[in-house]
Amino acid sequence: MKIPLPFPRLVSPRRLHEAGVLGMNRRNHAYIMRYNRRADYPDVDDKLRTKELAIRFGVATAELIGSIRFQYEVRDFERLVGDAPDFVIKPGHGSGGRGILVVKHREDGRFFKPDGSSCDYDFVYEHISNILSGLYSLGGQVDYALFERCIDFSDVYSRFSFQGVPDVRLIVFRGYPVMAMIRLATKESDGRANLHQGAVGVGIGIRDGRPRFAAQHNREISRHPDTGALFSELVVPEWEAHLELAARCAEMTSLGYFGADIATDRRRGPLLLELNARPGLAIQIANGQGLLTRLRLIESLPVGAHPTRAEKIAFAREHFN
User: Fold this and answer.
1) Which residue of 42, 99, 213, 232 is 20 to 30 Å from 53, comparing CA positions?
2) What is the distance in angstroms between the CA of the first residue and the CA of the last residue of the chain?
């Protein structure tokens, strides 16, 4: 049953239940708290730990340059990045994309951002210092700065996004990829792939990686509001690799319920951006379908029903169109 869109001001709990909609309270108590041990949260909340786990378990991700943990190290950040032509600086415990600085190239002592603007050494020094102070971290805790090579984003989605870089979000439950969407930036969202700021969410079928539904501000749409591209023409390349990567993430962490964010690199294909132990629920709007029915199906399976990653993916593709 489809989710009723657009949402009226009042929707009865019964109607939402019939549509299989997973609410925040049920998500928190029945899935996050039940299947995610608090001790395992650092696997995804600490970006360096996530990166190291990905490398250990063969999950493709952006190249790691290094990290800075102490203020006295900040003055030598250029030595850390060495001759890397591009790099990204991230808060190790950041969330929501806050505190990320992308440098596409360097020239004559200037650091150039993706939009063509530039900054100097002092700006980057201050930015790293702000990261260490906890300005962007979860709960304001003292943090560290993580340095990675830039992802060479593919232009396969260029018709379907306004300036920003799309990413695929896959919800993984007990090792099964159960729901997917791609987030597409708009002029309204200021080039950010944030659905709450006006980006478009396009539901992607687990079976074949093809679009099933698209929504913006809880309303179904068929074209990108800025480019006019038909979402029915969107194709996620290397869909098998997306599913494989997401399912493999379930082997590198003990978390039972999480979201995997994946971007497509021009040369390397799908790469893991990050994992989220508390993935949002807007993916249901993007798909026009509730998540609860799918989660309950997985819960109904006997323990060990599909012991291998390939079997879990095959089951998901068969049942989650």
Assistant:
1) 99
2) 13
